[in-house]
Amino acid sequence: MRPNGNAKLLEERRKQAIELLHTNMKPVEVARQLGVDRRSVRRWKASFLKDGIASLKARPAPGRTPKINNELKAKISKMLMKTPDHYGFKKKVWTYTLIAKAIKRKYGISYHYNYIGPLLRSMGWNLGRVRAVGRRAESFSKLSA
Fold first, then answer.
1. Tens digit of each residue's pLDDT (9 = 90 or more) over 52-85
2. How far apart are CA 104 and CA 54, in angstroms?
3. CB 42 within 8 A of CB 34
4. pLDDT, tens only, 123-132
5. How confident is the model at residue 91 (pLDDT cuts 50, 70, 90)?
6. C-alpha separations of 55 from 5, 8, 33, 136 in Å
């Protein structure tokens, strides 16, 4: 599991551990001072001895690239400002299923309806707000989440 903190902060912590080790502190003491596991300190030390300072550099978090980036989120947000019937659906209010179908139809991206809720929340929406837009069918300014 990736520890808390951004990549730069984690990199600085690893460098600090190596500096403390150079002052002849034991790995257990360094770990206690930095609030990390002693095995991490030993792993950082071994890596540093093998590959130098480059081994302590921050690396991007692993994981799949998101299907929907920020640019597409903005487009979906604009889409939700209109009612589903504007996009050829018979319903007047958005549902997770309709949103998933609209994304597939308009952008060619398959997105399971179970994940529409988290997607909407990451965009500052929730289904209640989306439905309110559909009922009023007028311009709607997103409220902060």
1. 999 999 877 778 888 898 899 999 999 988 989 8
2. 43
3. no
4. 888 777 666 5
5. confident
6. 18, 14, 22, 56
All residues at 6 or more sequence positions from 44 whose CB lies less than 8 Å from its CB, including other chains:
14, 17, 18, 55, 56
Other C-beta atoms closer than 10 Å to the C-beta of 67 total: 13
Q: Please list the alpha-helical segments (H only) found in the chain.
A: 7-22, 27-34, 38-51, 70-80, 96-107, 116-122, 127-136
In this structure, what token pair is assigned to residue 135? 């009922």
* Domain extent listing, the chain: 7-56, 70-136
> For the whole model, what pTM was predicted?
0.53
Are 37 and 88 in contact by the 8 Å Cβ rule? The answer is no
Give the pair of three-digit tokens for residue 1.
Answer: 């599991």
